[in-house]
Design a protein that fits this description.
Layout lengths: L13 E3 L6 E2 L12 E4 L5 E2 L12 E4 L5 E2 L12 E2 L7 E2 L12 E3 L6 E2 L12 E3 L6 E2 L12 E3 L6 E2 L12 E3 L6 E2 L6
Parallel strand pairs: 1-3, 2-4, 3-5, 5-7, 6-8, 8-10, 9-11, 10-12, 12-14, 13-15, 14-16
């Protein structure tokens, strides 16, 4: 699906991607304000940046393909997104991927994930639970900042670096479990 192909189609409610599509290009569905559900078939190998950005009615996405990356800004501002199931093949989550997804309550990170980039889940104000995978190595700057419903995190021992302000302004955060000798913290990680 070409860049900007459905961008701003305010009447588009549901879409099932045809089985011959391999790439969903940048901004393909950006600002499709009525889009509620989308099913991505196994043929799709790449979902590019800002693909579903500001799809404010989007509640569910089903990804049946072995993508390896959730691109930068992919679901930025999808404030109705309640559920997201990551394919196990995902190894990185890009910058601002789920920024401002205010209805997202729980995240189970995929088993092959290595990197969560800067501000990936920033301002996910309903986020209550994050289940980290064991292969995760890096949590970016402000990654879980302003996730005001998050009360507990259990960071696996494989995490080598947690970025600056990664968990800032999480007033409900009461319990952090991790190995402080294995992990490098940047400034004000839990400010």
């Amino acid at each position: 699906i070409k860049k900007n192909f459905f961008k701003g189609c305010e009447s588009l409610r549901n879409i099932k991607i045809p089985p011959n599509i391999t790439t969903i290009c940048d901004f393909a569905f950006e600002s499709c304000s009525s889009l509620k559900t989308i099913i991505i078939p196994p043929s799709v190998m790449s979902i590019e940046g800002s693909c579903f950005r500001e799809c404010i009615s989007l509640t569910e996405i089903v990804i049946n393909s072995p993508i390896t990356k959730i691109s930068d800004y992919c679901f930025y501002g999808c404030k109705s997104l309640k559920r997201f199931t990551f394919p196990d093949s995902v190894t990185s989550i890009g910058k601002y991927s789920f920024y401002g997804c205010t209805q997202l309550k729980e995240i189970n990170l995929p088993s092959d994930l290595i990197l969560i980039d800067d501000e990936a889940f920033c301002k996910c104000t309903s986020l209550e639970k994050v289940t980290f995978n064991q292969l995760l190595e890096q949590i970016g700057e402000k990654c879980f900042a302003e996730c005001s419903s998050l009360d507990e995190i259990n960071i696996p021992p494989n995490v080598k670096n947690i970025g600056e302000l990664a968990f800032m302004k999480n007033e409900m955060l009461e319990k952090v479990t991790m190995d402080p000798y294995q992990t490098k913290f940047e400034k004000n990680t839990f400010k």
